[in-house]
Amino acid sequence: MTALTNPLSKPSYPPPRPLHRRTYSSSSSSSSSRSRIVSAAVSVSNSETRDREKLKRLFAEARRRCHLDPTEGVPFTLDDFHSALDRSPSPACDVGAKVRGTIVATDADGAYVDVPAKSSAFLPLREACLHKIKHVTEAGLRPGSQEEFVIIGENAEDGSLVLSLRSVQHDLAWERCRQLKAEDVVVHGNVVGENKGGLTVIVEGLHGFVPSSQISKTSTTGFLNKDLPLKFVEVDKEQSQLVLSNRTAMMDGHDQLVIGSVVLGNVLSVKSYGALIDMGGFTGLLHISQISHERISDIASILQPGDTLKVMVMSHDCERNRVNLSTKKLEPTPGDMIHNPKLVFEKADEMAEIFKQRISQVEEMASSMILKYQSESGLGLGSRGV
After folding, report:
1. Do the Cβ atoms of 202 and 189 come closer than 8 Å?
2. Strand, coil or helix: what is 33?
3. What is the Cα–Cα distance from 77 to 80, expressed in whole angstroms?
4. pTM as predicted
């Protein structure tokens, strides 16, 4: 109540705490201690301050030099630097130069390539492969693929390079043809054109020519879109001449046709007397009497053009270019070519071996009989070889 009736009265506070003075045993030692502490603190502070000031001055000087004269102390000028940069070797960007790049993306028109010389380059679809393709992926080109390209031009709009793989493959194809000619091997070419002078073929992605005199058949028609066995006659990249021979390849192929051997063939056509069989570029006759042990009245009921079958070589006349074939000798059971041709295909090699063994036995028996006859008739060689 007193506080309410006397609002101006002073508030009461707790009494102040008494002050305690610190006493020292000796005034001289106290003074000395304080002096040492103060002088040490001043010494550290002065050293740090000097170092900081020194660093500030150095940074300030460096900043000033960068702004006012950035090339001070450099033994060459900016013009010298640009001149040296122009003289430094860099990837050639001239037409015909080769450059290595990485494919980064593909589309229906071609592929986008990252090359060191430019920020971007483009590989058109038509330049992606020697062969005709519908998409670059058919040539094995995918993002991440690294290839060596030939520069064939520059895009006028954005300055990007236009590249070609076809040119690189073209050079490799010529080299491959030279090797094949040196090895004297038989290759297969697809006929893309025919006229009285000969055939135009595609070999290793290159256009070659087969003169009519080098074709095994007298006619130069009926070959279009077919594959022919060929041998190289002339390979001249500088003159763009690639000449081949079908006749030479056929002769080599005929040398490999051993009587009793089994050959894979395709039915070319069916006649009343038999079927013509294509065996990798040369043709043989499968006579109606050599199709099966059972009698056949209609060959078309058994064989159709395009059918694939295994046949045995029965005879081979190289001079007349005639090969006689048989499936009759390959039948495990008489009539299998009519009732189970698949079994004949599967057992062909096995049956051919049995046939060869029988032929060998017959030849041995014939030889023995001849020797016996000569011995009994006195027609053998005498002791004096007469």
Report:
1. yes
2. helix
3. 5
4. 0.49
The answer to whether 223 and 229 are in contact (CB under 8 A) is: no
Mean pLDDT, range 43-50, rounded to an integer: 64
- 43: which residues sit within 8 A by CB, 6+ positions away? none
Q: What is the CATH number of the domain that holds 348?
A: 2.40.50.140
- Residue partners of 220: CB distance under 8 A and separation at least 6: 194, 195, 196, 197, 198, 199, 212
Specify if 351 maps to a domain: yes
Asked whether residue 384 is assigned to any structural domain, the reply reads no
Q: Which residues contact 379 (CB under 8 A, 6 or more apart)?
A: 373
- Per mean pLDDT, which range of 60-69, 108-117, 150-159 is the poorest? 60-69
Helix, strand, or coil here: 302? Answer: coil
Q: Is residue 340 part of a domain?
A: yes
Question: Does 207 fall in a domain?
Answer: yes
User: Where on the phi/psi map is residue 51: left (φ > 0), alpha (ψ -120 to 50), or beta?
Assistant: alpha
Q: Both 267 and 219 in a single domain?
A: no
